[in-house]
Amino acid sequence: MAAGITTLALTDHDTIGGWQEAEAALRPGIDLVLGAEISCQTEDLISVHMLGLLFDGAEPELQAMLDRTRENRVGRMEKIISRMNAAGIDISMAEVQAELADGATLGRPHLADALVRKGIVASRDEAFADLLHNHSPHYVAHYSPSPEAAIAAIKKAGGVAVIAHPMASLRGRTISIDSFRSLAEAGLDGIEIEHRDNSVEAYELLRSIAHEFDLVQTGSSDYHGNGKLNQLGEWVTNPDEWRRLEARANARRVLSA
After folding, report:
1. What is the pLDDT of residues 16-27, one digit of tens each?
2. How many other C-beta atoms can be found within 10 angstroms of the C-beta atom of residue 16?
């Protein structure tokens, strides 16, 4: 509330494990939107993060998708660690898992935090810039649904689908402009425009795409805790755009204290 936030979304990677705790912590003055950020991959192996919001958490098809994605992350992490060990970097699976909070989804940020704790790098940003980016020799791909499949599962669960930071080139290759037609035809509801990792030059392009395909324009701080530079509330969604997005869900699922 000190940041001026009145509606907050919880979208952990590939899990809804934090929903119950977040709902229990809800206080007057803040509305809570529950969701998940689904790790997707296109046919040409470009990583896409698809935000599912306002969906029914009990819908089995979406839950099965999230479960499979999470399960695959363990084997992937073991392979990344093996490659790093072979390159002379002393890090273990146990050290990475020690950075994992209860119910959280294992991912490269936890490996980055373990590297920071051991003094191998100074920060999570440095870990990704030097060792964990998508073109690193240590990188290992993992099972991910296609963005279209994720959209279909989100919509089947009654929610709305928003593509997160689509022009975040610092994370690796980004999808082509032509790809948005396929996503829109699959039922994409929104596009995250206001975000630290979308360049200023990309804003107008993303806005033109939003207008062309009638997509809601959102903003997000993508706050991940103290491990990232992102600050809670540094980017937000315009209230009018949020109302447009919420209206596309098949039921009202915003929670209030």
Report:
1. 999 999 999 999
2. 21
In this predicted model, what pLDDT tens digit does every residue of 34-53 receive, in sequence order? 999 999 988 887 889 999 99
Residue 100, in any domain of the structure = yes
Region of 119 (left: φ > 0; alpha: ψ -120 to 50; beta: rest) is left
Number of domains in the chain: 2
DSSP state of 6: S
My answer on whether 58 and 148 are in the same domain is: yes
| pTM over the 0.85 mark | no
192 plus 153 within the same structural domain: yes
Q: How far is CA 206 from CA 47, 75, 246, in A?
A: 18, 35, 20
Co-location of 174 and 92 in the same domain? no
| Residue 2: predicted pLDDT | 52
60 and 174 inside one domain: yes
Judgement on whether residues 241 and 118 belong to the same structural domain of the protein = no
At 177, phi and psi to the nearest 5?
A: -60, -35
CATH number, domain of 120, equals 1.10.150.650
**Alpha helix stretches (DSSP H) within the chain:** 19-24, 60-86, 93-97, 108-117, 124-127, 147-156, 179-186, 200-212, 239-246
Domain that holds residue 46: 7-67+143-246
Q: Give the CA dihedral 14, 10, 24, 232, nearest 10 degrees.
A: 140
Residues 6+ apart with CB under 8 A from 122: 116
